[in-house]
Amino acid sequence: MTKATLPPFTPLVDSLPASVPFVGPEALERMHERAFLARIGANESVFGPSPLAIEAMQAEAKGVWQYGDPENFELKQALAKKHGITADHIAIGEGIDGLLGYLVRLFVEAGVHVVTTDGAYPTFNYHVTGFGGHLHKVSFKDDREDPAALLDKANEVGARIIYLSNPNNPMGSTNPARIIEDLADNLPPQTLLCLDEAYADFLDAAQMPDIAPDHPQIIRMRTFSKAYGMAGARIGYAITHTELATAFHKIRNHFGMSRISQAGALAALDDTGYLAAIRTKVGRALSDIAAIAVENGLAPLASATNFLAIDCGGDGRRAAKVMQSLISQGIFVRMPGTAPQNRCIRITAGTPEDCKHLAACLPKALAAAKQN
Amino acid sequence: MTKATLPPFTPLVDSLPASVPFVGPEALERMHERAFLARIGANESVFGPSPLAIEAMQAEAKGVWQYGDPENFELKQALAKKHGITADHIAIGEGIDGLLGYLVRLFVEAGVHVVTTDGAYPTFNYHVTGFGGHLHKVSFKDDREDPAALLDKANEVGARIIYLSNPNNPMGSTNPARIIEDLADNLPPQTLLCLDEAYADFLDAAQMPDIAPDHPQIIRMRTFSKAYGMAGARIGYAITHTELATAFHKIRNHFGMSRISQAGALAALDDTGYLAAIRTKVGRALSDIAAIAVENGLAPLASATNFLAIDCGGDGRRAAKVMQSLISQGIFVRMPGTAPQNRCIRITAGTPEDCKHLAACLPKALAAAKQN
């Protein structure tokens, strides 16, 4: 006989909302019953992956009957070479999202304090809440994450983790390498600094902070989802102290990586000229988008990434109207979630075709935002 | 200045071993410094995925710059159609391994009891331990999982979850549908039955237990890793009560699925004749392997899966010697971990070429096992 109720979840799970960090563009397309003309809202790379990576993934499709190497041996070797470190400093996971989940699980339980910036990456917050941690948020300062405020708050609450994205999403801003290096040198003794460097590949390596890989209180998150154009392949990696890199083995989904993705990432790293070419294309696209913004009387912010935050010249309600109108016209964009950053919409570097659609739709969006 | 130590892990993480559930064949190949002649140890499908799935994955490689749909909308619709249920009964994740991790996280914390069979799937145990649960193990009975013993133990300890794989791995045995249905009808009120049905596609649907999808105490795990030949794509799904299916959204890695895998799975489901053809090939391969075993004086067990447990006629030490010799000769096989099931080695259905290699290497392996 069928019983009436589900077995009880843990009290922690019971306390969690069923909300999701992001609504995907496909859900919006289903809602609006049309495909987007321009998909420039999730900071994906419209320029796609390296042709070498595409070829490698296509070749590996036939071999997908085999599980991927759970040790990610070859990919770790190649990443170690890229970064001039040994492979035991590297942890690999199902995107930075997956790695952030594992990282939080390693350090956070009920009663543990974590510090981040209000309006920074919500998926990190999702994991902290999901493991029962106590989140503390400091404000942006001049649209940048504020290392001094993060450090003060960490000292105040005895934080186990400080999360800092550099370059920052959603504003596109950076902190100078020296500032991050100072932060790394002045951490409270029991605090880990999680540097989300998803957008690092859009900068020269010299612009990124110089931190020894054996610093025991730093983990740097990198990804193939942005400059490498492989968001759908789910490959993130972390650079950190060997002891922390090893600890991931205690809890990770050992066979979690797609074999096709492993092959694609390996080939992408072989295409040494690729990132430079992408940065040129992204630079051109952001110039185009900035020009479109300026033509429409809007103020694009400086960006160290593959997207632009564009000040819509009002408050969050105004920017939301602009974004909604763009979405309903077929242009997928997003916007920051907290004031005053939510005066902006966030637009990803698009193809020339994407930019043309944006140029056609933005005036109508601004008119709509003025009206009501 | 660099601090000397890592921030502290949670006490639970500190208590976990760094051991892994399985060593992958690639690690063995690196250790032996040679590629395997036959990869028939991980119950992968050497016959590969449907040509339609390969084609779809190859086509999607170019689109991999986009994140996959976090709602897995189309794939859920197609799976709902396959199973004659609505999509809200389905949860999708990064292989059954990933889903088992999420499931355990939903229900298990320190002090929660869980029941499984000694020698059943170690990755489930890994997750239970990883979330602080207390594992209780009952024995196989005649090389089958023993629903009565599982139920008794669950009643005794007040288990939150009973894990039962049917068909069973590593023995290849099944329990009659009626027995599982009885178990489902007699669960203690606060116990969830997790049915791992990874090998279900090797049976007729009519041979599987008939359980209403809205039974609030059952979750059934399925996969594209076995009969569909897509282990490296990491696609598992669960069929369960809508409330439990929804609860996964509270904790899962929403953007964790590979976009290429999603496309491949969708195309695989479209190839309606594929599973029947695979079952024919698997049946032929298992007959060949059984014949090789018998020729060598060994006793293959009955199998409802794509692998055979083969009784090596001694204890675990003897079977381990046979396995080790096969591995060092280039034949990747595995074996059960607990007595008396560890009198067997476990061999996956191979290609005719794989079987030829096995036939050539097995006599030497048996001779080696006799010698020392």
Give the arrangement of secondary structure elements:
The structure is a homodimer of 372-residue chains.
Chain A lengths: L10 H5 L9 H8 L5 E2 L11 H10 L12 H11 L6 E4 L1 H13 L5 E5 L4 H9 L3 E5 L8 H11 L3 E5 L11 H9 L6 E5 L21 E6 L12 E5 L1 H6 L11 H12 L3 H22 L3 E2 L6 E5 L4 H13 L2 E2 L11 E5 L3 H20 L1
Parallel strand pairs in A: 1-11, 3-4, 3-5, 5-6, 6-7
Antiparallel strand pairs in A: 2-8, 7-8, 9-10, 10-12
Helix pairs in contact in A: 3-10, 4-10, 5-6, 11-13, 12-13
Précis, in short:
The structure is a homodimer of 372-residue chains. Chain A has 372 residues and is α/β, with parallel strands linked by helices.
Average pLDDT across residues of chain A?
Answer: 96
Could you list the spans of chain A in which at least 5 consecutive residues all have pLDDT below 50?
A: none
- CATH architecture label name of the largest domain in chain A: 3-Layer(aba) Sandwich
Order of strands across the biggest sheet of chain A? 2-8-7-6-5-3-4
Proportion of strand residues of chain A: 5-15%
Number of domains of chain A: 2
User: Which protein chains make the most extensive interface, counting residues with beta carbons within 8 Å of the other chain's beta carbons?
Assistant: A-B, 98 and 98 residues
Q: What is the strand tally of chain A?
A: 12
Structural class of chain A: alpha/beta
Detailed description of the structure:
By secondary structure, chain A is of the alpha/beta class. Chain A folds into two domains: 17-48 and 274-371, Aspartate Aminotransferase, domain 1, CATH 3.90.1150; 53-270, Type I PLP-dependent aspartate aminotransferase-like (Major domain) (Aspartate Aminotransferase, domain 2). Helix content of chain A is 40%, strand content 14%. Chain A is built from 13 helices and twelve strands. Chain A has helices spanning 11-15, 25-32, 51-60, 73-83, 95-107, 122-130, 147-157, 177-185, 242-247, 259-270, 274-295, 316-328, 352-371; strands spanning 38-39, 90-93, 113-117, 134-138, 161-165, 192-196, 218-223, 236-240, 299-300, 307-311, 331-332, 344-348. In chain A, the strands form three sheets. Chain A has a seven-stranded mixed beta sheet with strand order 2-8-7-6-5-3-4, sandwiched between helices. A three-stranded antiparallel beta sheet of chain A has the order 9-10-12. In chain A, strands 1-11 form a two-stranded parallel ribbon. In chain A, helix 4 (73-83) packs parallel to helix 10 (259-270) and helix 11 runs parallel beside helix 13 (352-371). The longest helix of chain A has 22 residues, at 274-295. The first copy, chain A, is globular. The mean pLDDT of chain A is 96. At the A-B interface, helix 1, helix 2, helix 3, helix 5 and helix 9 of A face helix 1, helix 2, helix 3, helix 5 and helix 9 of B.
